[in-house]
């Protein structure tokens, strides 16, 4: 991906104005020069002066310990959507010699990825995982100022309050909890002047929109109401299989149990022992299957009221469905949006059970065809955030045709189509 440079922010004339304004910050009356730079930068400089004192002093970020960083990463809602950010931002950023940082609401960088050479240079200024890049720690910067203001921000070279950061430019957008609107994180694009190109913010905004969509539709524990089917087993997407009970409680389900339940709900009429054995193991498992079924039956009796596992053939009785089955039913009714809302991604993506692989392929193909033939741009854009769509040139070209000329999403669509066409040559 090649980004065209921003003529204003990176221009020599504007940078000279910024340098002069910085030189007068130490004086008794710097209001005149501050009026010549961008308002959001001037406001951030004033805040930074109050916290850090005079200009020119190199600042070093506060760092959390490795163990604290691991703990914050594991429990943060950004962790499950990191694959989306990598597909939509990190890969094209690396091609443009840029790096992508993902931080929490406090300004700590949780992940810093992208071009290897740029990352090594960024290490020298403390732009590393675990570093605090809030305004209170590092002064004016795109991630810190975006978190403070709650708005997308671009900061070019000398606009950074910390002189150590002057060789760099950056753009950032805050991420908000779809439920209550509070800021929960930030995505930042850092590097040379290409980090503030006209395409930078649209790319970031499109990635943020994909993250928000994933949180709304796939990762938050409420997108699929339970009353119609009682308990719902969520087996699509990248999270561990989990059961939303009719009582409102959530329980994680072990992998083999999730495979068996997925197969029995998909094949509603039931499966005899040999069929289930073949679909789960692919070979004669004998006592292994019987023992697993016995453990699953006891788990259902203890934790899922009203649902029972019967034998001859193996089948489920009671109000239990999987999100995969609900998606299949929605597709049969022609309800693409509903199907996408149920199916957060591939069915049990880590499973190698032959029957699950078959379901995964069948539902994935059906969803793609429905999106390609019948979906509007919102459903198509939701689908494009999935791993299976990252290299689907036909879908990205369809999106490009459907997007309005003034849509901020076009920048991401154009860059993706260009990349995929180049890879196909």
Report a brief summary of the structure.
By secondary structure, this protein is an alpha+beta fold.
Question: What is Rg?
Answer: 25 Å
Q: Average pLDDT value?
A: 85
CATH topology of the largest domain: Beta-Lactamase
Structural class: alpha+beta
> How many distinct domains?
3
The number of helical runs is 18
Verbal overview:
49% of the residues lie in helices and 12% in strands. The longest helix is centred in the C-terminal third of the chain and has 21 residues, at 354-374. The protein has 18 helices and 11 strands. The two termini are 15 Å apart. It is elongated and about 85 Å long. It folds into 3 domains: 40-219, Beta-Lactamase (2-Layer Sandwich); 231-389, no CATH class; 391-425. With 425 residues, it is α+β, with helices and mostly antiparallel strands. It has helices at residues 12-23, 31-34, 39-52, 66-75, 78-95, 116-123, 135-138, 142-149, 200-219, 255-266, 273-280, 287-303, 323-332, 336-342, 354-374, 377-384, 393-402, 409-424; strands at residues 99-104, 109-114, 153-155, 169-176, 183-191, 231-234, 242-244, 250-252, 308-310, 315-317, 320-322. The model is unreliable at 1-7 and 219-229 (pLDDT under 50). The strands form 3 sheets. A 5-stranded antiparallel sheet has the order 2-1-5-4-3, sandwiched between helices. Helix 9 (200-219) crosses helix 18 (409-424). A hairpin with a 4-residue loop joins strand 9 and strand 10 (315-317).
């Amino acid at each position: 991906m090649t980004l065209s440079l921003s003529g204003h922010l990176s221009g020599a004339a504007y940078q000279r104005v910024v340098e002069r304004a910085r030189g007068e910050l130490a004086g008794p009356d710097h209001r005149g020069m501050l009026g010549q730079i961008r308002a959001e930068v001037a406001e951030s400089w004033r805040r930074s002066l109050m916290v850090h004192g005079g200009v020119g002093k190199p600042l070093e970020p506060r760092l959390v310990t490795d163990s604290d960083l691991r703990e914050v990463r594991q429990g943060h809602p950004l962790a499950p959507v990191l694959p989306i950010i990598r597909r939509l931002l990190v890969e094209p950023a690396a091609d443009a010699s840029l790096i992508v940082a993902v931080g929490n609401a406090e300004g700590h960088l949780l992940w810093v990825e992208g071009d290897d050479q740029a990352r090594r240079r960024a290490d020298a200024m403390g732009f590393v995982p675990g570093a605090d890049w809030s305004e209170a720690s590092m002064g004016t910067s795109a991630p810190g100022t975006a978190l403070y203001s709650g708005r997308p921000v671009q900061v070019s070279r000398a606009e950074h309050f910390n002189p150590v950061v002057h060789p760099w430019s950056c753009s950032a957008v805050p991420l908000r909890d779809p439920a209550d609107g509070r800021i929960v994180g930030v995505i930042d694009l850092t590097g040379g002047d290409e980090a503030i190109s006209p395409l930078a913010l649209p790319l970031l905004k499109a990635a943020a929109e994909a993250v928000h969509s994933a949180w709304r539709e796939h990762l938050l524990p409420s997108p699929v109401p339970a009353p119609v089917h009682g308990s719902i087993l969520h087996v699509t997407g990248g999270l561990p299989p989990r059961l939303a009970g009719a009582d409102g409680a959530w329980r994680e389900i072990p992998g083999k149990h999730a495979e068996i339940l997925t197969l029995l709900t998909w094949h509603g009429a039931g499966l005899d022992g040999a069929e289930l054995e073949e679909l789960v193991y692919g070979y004669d498992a004998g006592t292994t299957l019987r023992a697993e079924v016995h453990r699953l039956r006891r788990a259902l009796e203890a934790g899922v009221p009203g649902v029972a596992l019967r034998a001859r053939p193996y089948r489920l009785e009671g109000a239990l469905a999987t999100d995969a089955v609900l998606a299949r039913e929605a597709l049969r009714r022609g309800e693409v949006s509903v199907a996408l809302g149920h199916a957060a991604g591939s069915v049990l993506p880590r499973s190698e059970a032959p029957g699950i692989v078959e379901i995964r392929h069948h539902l994935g193909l059906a969803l793609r065809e429905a999106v390609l033939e019948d979906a509007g741009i919102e459903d198509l854009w939701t689908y494009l955030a999935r791993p299976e769509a990252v290299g689907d040139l036909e879908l990205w070209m369809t999106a490009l045709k459907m997007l309005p000329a003034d849509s901020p999403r076009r920048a991401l669509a154009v860059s993706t189509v260009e990349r995929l066409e180049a890879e196909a040559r």
